[in-house]
Each structure stands twice: as C-alpha cells, then as structure tokens.
C-alpha cells in the first residue's frame, strides 16, 4: 500500500507544477519582465529629462586655457610637501594660467603678488568630493590666512563618470574660491605637473612653487599648509 | 542612449535584484509565511541565469562600450561571473540544471567576498588617498543613489545568483518530506 502511494506521488509530481504552477510561473515571469522594462523606461526618462541642459552643461564644463611659461615636471611619488630635495618643481616658476570660470568670467592664476593655493579637482573623484567641503568649511570658519588666495581648476571632466557636471557639484557645495575650467584634454592639469587627484600646487606671490601635494588631506593639514604658503 | 542611462538602468536592476534576494532570504528565515519561496522557486533558476547574463553583458558594456577600464579586482570578479553565466545558460539549454548549477552556485559564493572587498576599498579612502589616472581599485567609475557602484552591483549579482540557485537546487520542505517518507 505504501508502495502504491509512493508511485502515485512520483507520477503526479511532474504534472502538478505544470497544471497550477505553470500559470503562476508565467505570471511571475511576466510581472518581473514588466518591472524590468519599466525600470528601463525610468532610467531613460530620468536621464533624458535634462538632456538638453546636460549637453549644454557638457559644453560649458571645459574651456580653452592659455598657459604661459614652462611646464612643471610631473609630481614624483612620495614627495614631501615643500621639500626642495624631493620635488623637482620646488622654487621654479609655475606657468600663468589664463582661462574662464563656469560663468565665463576671466580667471588668471599668475604672479600677482599674492601667495596662492591651486586645487586641481576631478568631479568624479571621491577624494576631491571629500576635500571640497573641508576647504569650504575652513574658509567659512575664517581659517583662511589674510592675503592668501585659493583657486580651483576643474579638470578631467568626463560626463560618463559620476557627479557630473562639476559646475553643479561645486555650486551645491557652496564652494566660494575662484574656479577655472580646464580644457577637454586637461592641459592645465598636465602643465602644472599633476597625475592624480586632488592635486594641489602652493605658490608664492611671484608664482614660484613652494610645494605640491597629491591626495586628500585633513582639515588641520590643509590649514597648516595655507599658513605656510601665506608666510612664504 | 547615454552611458548614464545604461548605468542607471543597471543600478535600478541591481536594486530590484537586491529586493528579490532580501525577500527570499527573509521568507526562508520566517518559514515562508507569505508563500514567496513557493512562488519564486519554479523560476529561480531562470532568474539566476538572467542575473548572471545581465551582469556579464553589463560588465562588457562598461568596459567596451562606456570605456571604463576594469581594475585588478574587477577582473577577479569577472573570472567568477563569466563562467557562472556560461554554466547557467548551458544548464537552461541542456536541462542539466543540478550538474551545471552547482558549480555556478560555488562561483557566485566565491565571487561575493571579492565584491565586498572591492567595495570596502572604494569606501576606505582616508587621508592621503587619491584618484590616480592609472585606475586604482578605489576609483568609482559609476555611482548611483549614493552607494551603487560597479562592485556593489557585482556583489548584489553574486548574492542574488547564489540565493536563487540555492532556492532552485535545494529540495523544498515538501519534497524533502516526501523523500523522507519514501525512504521510510
């Protein structure tokens, strides 16, 4: 008797999912299919909604730059900031950068008598994204030494990468330093000797290099470097 | 269609996969009170295959279409995902689900910790960390909703494949009981 029941169960098993399970299986696959297609529509809608603006933003995010002067050598790895022996650019004159900001106003970073710090930022770089609010907090807290100018250069712009466009990112962060746009090839970044982000160049009033750094810094170090730059 | 559209779509699909995985795991832990396991089980193998194929095609698009250079850890994850996708497609095509599904499950389980490690490396960036043009593993080519990066998507893919294959390949409680009865 037990054997008979067992055989019946075995015979029934393939038919059971086919009868009731088949329709529910099809229904479930249909629901998932509709959701998957719906998500595709959401993605298209979400990214196309501002496509007109985005293409405009793309055009505005980079601009030609003029660089007057010799290019700085690329920052070698493991250089201590402001170390004359390890940084080949120490004491050399940085090129003068003439470009424009996101609003089209002229920006000149050169020998104007004021010491300055120039940040090269990539919108898609998480370390740059972390550094920008730190810098802004220090400025808002009044930690920027008198006479020191802070500049930023938006470079390595790539609309395919995250956090695009950089103009919106910096505006959202309430970033107040003067920002210049690098060109689409990152000419300013390369001419200043950068190879990674965030890249910072510390200059005296005659545009001579006091130090360079690559990588994120904490607030305390940023402030110390500002003070050292301001004091020449 | 822009790269942003495709990456957003992949991110949304990842969230859907995450929801399905979370639902299946929660149901398994609570004795399938709402019948979710019974509903999903008949299509679990096909869904796992779809996830693996989507992950494979998606990763190829990101490198070959969008031009995002895969880093070292991306390649390790590919080494687990691509064969898993091939095995699952072959399993669906030939009907040899148990034979080909089990190694695919193992590949998914093995790939998951690599994705987790990669995501931690992306999140870690402390003082001194930088984004190198030479493409370190900490670089986030894609980020949606503040947390969905490429290794996040891969990790969700691996966990979804492992969960769904586990559901598809492990006998249900009813079948297990029947088998036990047959033996006795």
Question: Could you explain the architecture of this structure?
Answer:
The complex is a heterodimer of chains A (232) and B (184). Chain A has 232 residues and is an alpha/beta fold. Chain A has 2 domains: 2-49; 65-230, 3-Layer(aba) Sandwich (Glutaredoxin), CATH 3.40.30. Chain A contains 6 helices and 9 strands. Chain A has helices spanning 2-48, 51-61, 126-140, 166-172, 187-191, 219-230, and strands at 66-68, 96-100, 106-109, 116-122, 149-155, 178-181, 196-197, 199-203, 209-214. In chain A, the strands form 2 sheets. Chain A has a 5-stranded mixed beta sheet with strand order 6-5-4-8-9, covered by helices on one side. In chain A, strands 1-2-3 form a 3-stranded antiparallel beta sheet, with no helix packed on it. The radius of gyration of chain B is 18 Å and the shape is elongated. In chain B, helix 3 (72-94) packs antiparallel against helix 4 (97-124). Chain B has 184 residues and is mainly alpha-helical. Chain B has 6 helices and 1 strand; from the N terminus they run H-H-H-H-E-H-H. The mean pLDDT of chain B is 86. Chain B has one domain. Strand 7 (196-197) of chain A pairs antiparallel with strand 1 of chain B.
């Amino acid at each position: 008797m037990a054997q008979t029941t067992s055989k019946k169960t075995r015979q029934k098993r393939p038919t059971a999912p086919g009868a009731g399970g088949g329709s529910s299986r099809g229904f479930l696959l249909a629901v998932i299919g509709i959701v998957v297609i719906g998500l595709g529509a959401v993605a298209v809608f979400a990214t196309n909604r501002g496509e007109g603006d985005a293409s405009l933003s793309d055009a505005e995010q980079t601009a030609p730059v003029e660089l007057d002067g010799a290019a700085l050598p690329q920052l070698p790895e493991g250089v201590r900031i402001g170390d004359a022996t390890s940084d080949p650019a120490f004491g050399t004159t940085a090129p003068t950068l003439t470009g424009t900001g996101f609003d089209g106003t002229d920006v000149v970073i050169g020998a104007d008598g004021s010491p300055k710090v120039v940040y090269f930022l990539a919108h898609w770089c998480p370390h740059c994204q972390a550094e920008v609010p730190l810098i802004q907090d220090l400025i808002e807290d009044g930690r920027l030494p008198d006479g020191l100018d802070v500049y930023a250069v938006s470079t390595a712009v790539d609309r395919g990468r995250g956090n695009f466009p950089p103009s919106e990112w910096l505006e959202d962060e309430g970033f107040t330093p003067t920002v210049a746009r690098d060109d689409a090839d990152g000419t300013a970044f390369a001419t200043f000797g950068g190879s990674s982000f965030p890249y910072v160049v510390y200059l005296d009033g005659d545009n001579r290099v006091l130090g360079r750094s690559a990588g994120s810094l904490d607030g305390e170090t940023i402030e110390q470097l500002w003070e050292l730059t301001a004091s020449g | 269609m822009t790269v942003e559209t495709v990456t957003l779509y992949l991110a949304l699909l990842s969230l859907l996969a995450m929801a399905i995985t979370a639902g299946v795991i929660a149901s398994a832990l609570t004795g399938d009170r709402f019948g979710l396991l019974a509903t999903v089980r008949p299509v679990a193998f096909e869904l796992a295959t779809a996830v693996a194929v989507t992950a494979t095609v998606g990763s190829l698009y990101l490198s070959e279409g969008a031009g995002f250079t895969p880093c070292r850890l991306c390649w390790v994850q590919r080494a687990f995902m691509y064969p898993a996708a091939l095995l699952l497609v072959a399993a669906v095509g030939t009907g040899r689900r148990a034979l080909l599904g089990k190694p695919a499950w193992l590949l998914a389980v093995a790939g998951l910790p690599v994705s987790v490690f990669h995501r931690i490396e992306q999140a870690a960036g402390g003082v001194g960390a930088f984004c190198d043009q030479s493409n370190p593993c900490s670089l986030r080519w894609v980020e949606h909703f503040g947390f969905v990066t490429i290794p996040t998507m891969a990790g969700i893919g691996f966990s979804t494949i492992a969960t769904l294959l586990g559901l598809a390949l492990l006998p249900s409680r009813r079948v297990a009981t029947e088998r036990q009865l047959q033996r006795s």
